[in-house]
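Predicting holo structure, nicotinamide-adenine-dinucleotide bound.
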Amino acid sequence: MATAANTSEADLRVIEKYSPVTGEKLGEYHISTPEEVEEAVARARKAFPAWRDLSLEARMKYMRKVAEVVSEDADYLCARISEDTGKPLFGALLTELMTIPLFIEHYEKTAPKVLARKKVKNPLLLSTKKSYIEYFPMGVIGIISPWNFPFQLAMLPAISALMTGNTVVLKPSEVTPISGEIVAEVFDRAGLPEGVFNLVQGDGSTGAALVECDIDKVFFTGSVATGRKVMAAAAKKPIPVELELGGKDAFIVCHDADLKRAAKAAAWAGLANCGQMCTSVERILVVESVHDEFVKHLQEVVSEVRVGAPDEDVEMGPMTFPKQLDTVEAHIKQAKEAGAEVVLGGHRIDRDGQFFSPTIVTNVKDDMDIYVEETFGPVLPVIKVKDEEQAIRMANDHQYGLTGSVWTKDIKRGLKLASRMESGQCSVNDAVQSVGNPALPFGGVKASGIGRYHGDEGLLSFMHQKAIMVDYGMMGPEPFWFPYKGKYPELMGAFKSLMKGNIPKSMYKLLTMPKKSK
Ligand code: NAD
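Done. Tokens:
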């Protein structure tokens, strides 16, 4: 069978792009050479000072134009994303496009305050001064993005980086070069000045070349294995790295959950985008007293999920990346051999393209691959637990910590469990949607990543901070400036008192009196 994305082995010069829906070849995409990657970074470097020196309002105008282009061209963009990934058109609109104008609108309101110089307090010893925190853009940001949400996960970091005065070089996934192309089209149509946004296409070697170039930060979204390599390469310089990596999200169903709502949510949050989400529900931990009833509801919902091409009337499309199908099959096979039960689906669908049936696996144990590793496919693994305590213990005893959720009618219990979950995000009676609130920071703990974007952090993470202190020159020399001759005992006594929060009388003597104004 044709693969969705192969780099031709002869010269590694093109990406051959195949349709996930039909298996047909859609086209070839030039792989940027290391020299072309360097040139793109040089263009971004050259454009940086003028872009940085624009006012926030002026940069925001460009971003408003980006939002307009995305809204006006929604049909075209959804069609291209679907062609690239196989996802249904509504899925493309909901999960790839919607957030763009939403985030820009949010940042229009919040960015002026978030990025403004901030006055901060001084301790007693420094009470005659004023202190501030200022922010300034880092420079050229290298963005390396994955194939599962190839539009959104390139656009959002790029918008945050650009808004804050940085210039950008994007290297999208080799699996989804069409989406990389339309991201560049959107910025082009928004009329960004030459060199402010730059696209290079290619595979891992192109990404590695970008990290080697003269960039000031790398924003990486992808697998843990690649994240480690990116961090190691960035450490040589060193430059800051943000890593948005994998997940294995826990979904805790308590004894008092609304089981019908929870089952519908699990089906959507585990099967949307064909389960190819870092925030997919991949471990459903159900308290034993409600386990069987929950599984019955889940089966009812999932058996109604229809699979097909983006232009068919369906809930789920094909998988985007052919290699991922192998992982899904391997996890199901290993789980079955170790005693798990496939109660629905569990197989490829007999038609052209990369289609897999929506799958429920029960009797999953914590030593199975399907529990330990990211499956990243349309599979809902269910684990029976004794009680909520065992559920939260198991949720936390895992390498990943991206998002999670707790299902209970007792909101207090839900919030307590949510606070105890070792993850970057956790919802009560909801799943995945917190990522759509632009005011909430997003990112992982443990192997799920380092750093945050979205929310205020989504802007500040592309800025350096500068501490500023001002002395208005009203006092003479500081009491601890040289010389100490004859002042030693007094200095020791005074500063020991200061450590306890008191200004001793002797301090006034040590302080030189204010200069007389002329
Ligand atoms: P991947 O790690 O295979 O590739 C990601 C990107 O890195 C691609 O553009 C690839 O070409 C590039 N790359 C590969 N080797 C490189 C190297 N040595 N140096 C620099 N760049 C290199 O990941 P993927 O398969 O595209 O994406 C799926 C993974 O991404 C899953 O693990 C998923 O959970 C994760 N993900 C995380 C988030 C998040 O926000 N936390 C979001 C989406 C996906």
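The first strand starts at residue 5 and ends at 7.
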